[in-house]
Amino acid sequence: MEVNKPEIVAEVTAAFIEYERALVDNDLDTMNALFWHTPETVRYGIAEVQRGGAAIRAWRASAEPVPVSRRLHRTVVTTFGSDFATVSTEFTSDATALLGRQMQTWARVGEASEAHDGWKIVAAHVSLIATSQARRPS
Questions:
Q1: Nearest in space to 92 (alpha carbons), one of 136, 56, 40
Q2: What domains can be seen in the chain, in order of their start residue?
Q3: pLDDT for 20-58, tens place per residue?
Q4: Which of 125, 57, 50, 44 lies closest to 91 in space, CA to CA?
Q5: Within the chain, where are the H helices?
Q6: Whole-model pTM above 0.85?
């Protein structure tokens, strides 16, 4: 298995950037399209847990949009072979002094004809920590 094949890193990076754009723009259709819509998908949020694509979509429909001041820091895309990847990032915003952390597991589970060559988020975790626990990016 090859780690970080450049063309696969580029595909996952493009999908991740599209998800982030949708998140900041509160584009529910795109966010929903990029999450795997199955009972196996899990999202651990800052103050909530969703198990399954239906629960994620229901939560997303009622969730407050993320602050437009959201900024990413230290994003790492790691791919394994041609169909599996992780994306780790930190984020800050003007809405809180806390440091956000986000982990996503991506897998090519959709059709190649779909946007982003079938890449979907199959698991996600978001958390906040006090900046005293970690250096806040500048």
A1: 136
A2: 6-129 (3.10.450.50)
A3: 999 999 999 999 999 999 999 999 999 999 999 999 999
A4: 125
A5: 6-25, 28-34, 53-62
A6: yes
